[in-house]
Amino acid sequence: MLLSNDSVIYKCDTRDLSKICATSMSRVRHQQYVNLSWKMRDGSLKGLFCTAPKSIRSVRRNSGSFNVTAFTEEQEALVVKSWNAMKKNSGELALKFFLRIFEIAPSAKKLFTFLKDSDIPVEQNPKLKPHATTVFVMTCESAVQLRKAGKVTVRESNLKDLGATHFKYGVLDEHFEVTKYALLETIKEAVPEMWSPEMKNSWAEAYDQLAAAIKTEMKPPS
Prior knowledge:
CATH architecture of the domain at 73-216: Orthogonal Bundle
Pfam families: Globin (PF00042)
Subunit structure: Homodimer.
Subcellular location: Cytoplasm; Nucleus
Family: Belongs to the plant globin family.
Largest sheet: 6 strands, mixed
Oligomer: single chain
Cofactor: heme b
Radius of gyration: 19 Å
Order of helices and strands: EEEEEEEEHHHHHHH
């Protein structure tokens, strides 16, 4: 049985789906073994889904094979390299990041209480830069730690609180997409000499995993 995505093919014996040999197609000599946990939804392989590690985002069956979305070692290296170059200017980049969000979706300002009732121009609001910096650094550090931690982790917070806050203020799927685009554009402008399709895909995958983790926790208070 083959489990594959664009860069990795996962081979496994159907009698032991918890042990998978992952071979990088871009570097054939590189191999790593990954232990996964599996559950059966309905007693058949059609109901099979992966529960760990969380850096493997999804497993879908497709015509007798499984498509796996994972955050690879190569992606981690690209994210770490670019974040090391950016973090000394994280405050300024964070402000650009949020201003880009509001440029694309002006209505997003209504999600922030310190903006929606303020007469001060957005870029001059004293509360914007500290908040933007917190979000930007949290997002980037979550990406950096994703593969090592084996799951999404967030700085100075937890996913349950983040999910509750996003639910409370009515954050929608389109807001996550706008934020993703603004993040990628901000990073592209910050490290143009490093930017590549591979780096773009690396940051996009890390962000998608963070967004998915937050959405999972977006629910009414129990």
